[in-house]
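Quality-control log, excerpt.
Job 1 of 2 completed; input and output follow.
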Amino acid sequence: MDPLAFVDEELEALKARGLFRWLRCMEGPHGPVMMVDGRRAVVLASSNYLGLSTHPRVVGAAVEAAVRYGCSVGASRLIAGNHELYAQLEDRLAALKGTEAALVFSTGYMANLGVLGALAGPDDVIFSDALNHASIIDGIRLSRAGVVVFPHSDPAGLEDLLRAHQHRRRRIVVVDGVFSMDGDIAPLPDLLAVARRWGALVVVDDAHGTGTCGPGGAGALAASGLRGAADLEVGTLGKALGSFGAFVAGSRKLIGLVINKARSFIFTCGLPPSALAAASAALDVLRDEPDLPVRLMDNARQVRETLGRAGFDLSPSTTHILPLHVGDSRRTMALCERLLDAGVFAQGIRYPTVPEGTERLRLTPMATHTADHLAAACRTIVECGAALGLPAARATPRASSR
């Protein structure tokens, strides 16, 4: 009996359902136009939202740090890896978010796992928006806390559930700021007000809002007039800020707790100096070039309006993340490949990233796309969609980033 026979069986089952995944080859600097699997394409699938990963100041800072400090910090931060660049970056991230302190993690996934594990345990309950990111879902599971899923962006539904669980030891509400698959913004003022009425902590994962929305790119909370109002806010350095890593911002006491209890912080190597320096330089650019988030949203508006006139429904997005709904795995990937052949890369998103029946292309224009890039891409999307019978009149599905 072959103990590895299950591998072929599972891979064939994925292929039969149209769910088989593979790694694409992206060539050249990560920008608005790249070579993708050997084909030149306008890239509408990147989270390098502001184009900062190739900005001369960001690249220059990374190079200078690598030359000066080397390619690794050589240890976990609590052993010997807490390089001097960390303190500089964390002070600036706290200032951006309007909090007392911040703590840099190696990835956003690790940040959510660490934060939720530090805050909650078996005697506690975490209230999670139905469309929260996979890292939040996994963080809740690993915390061993009870979980209560509340309807997406529904403060009244959350209040009913908080009332029903008011006698639990500790209650924590966790929500994305900008939802990664639908591009809508959580109703943060109402959710925070409900949580405070019932004595619950609030954690906001603003991976996709940091750098893209709010005054100075401070994020979704700042856009709602609530800068620094959550107990903890998670952000990323690897999307709009063009570097690598993540962070959590909050009070000094809570950050101290995370340092001492977050296993995904304690037991991992620190980021290389180049990444830390690049992230600090990106904050400089964000301060000095405030038009970048404006250009990003203008470009998103161009795509939304152009495709909307052609009959595509990109709701409920109000941001730079635009879901073009297809609703079938095979047709989604057929459209993705047809577009790539025609010079547009928009990756198909399928189960389990989104529920079955909500498959889509996730369009993410960048601030560095030109109007001509986007006009040509939209024409191609309309033409390739028509060849597959899209757009079709259908109710807009909702996604959960699992």
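Job 2 of 2 completed; input and output follow.
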Amino acid sequence: MDRKHSDTIADELRADILRGVFPPGDRLIELSLTERYSCGRAAIRAALVELVAEGLVEHAANRGATVRRIGVAEAIQITEARAALEVLIATNAARQATDSERTELLSIVSQMAKSVENDDNTVYSELNRVFHRRIREISGHQIASELVANLRNRAAHHQYRLAMMPGRSKVSLEQHTTIAKAIAEGDEPGAAKAMEHHLMSVVGVLQQWGDAGPD
């Protein structure tokens, strides 16, 4: 009998993929995964089916399951879709946020500023993830939040690469600060505009990568 439920295995495998334990193109061998996650093959297969549906994993004949590579063109489309949804989320967050949640977002931005001062892009990348996740949670819009979480996961490799770009964190910090302040002030149009500007800035960088040639 499996020691863990397949949903738990999917969560752990997803987290490992997003952390880069299994980079894009890596084969996901069932036997190795059963040993890593202390479970049976049935749980691994169920988890892989779930991650295939999310777009994180692909399954090909004669090759098995691999971590899916996301090209720049697809990453651009993912970010454009995110922008439409996250504008809605930011608007709702500005409307719904409690005083403590507004303070929390401003605190996260302050931590982001410290990571920029320390030139710690890894910490900045993690805080960026937390910042967007908290806005989704604060918004109370469950459907949009679930869709955005899925889209972010699919393009995680490009998000990490973006965070590691020299000078990018300073630009990003200014944008996140504007978003946080608008939400803290309950400025719904301002939050929507700031979020759209931020994600369209990401699209702009991705387009430059695409113009530079193959990823």
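Post-run check on job 2. The two ends are 43 Å apart (CA to CA).
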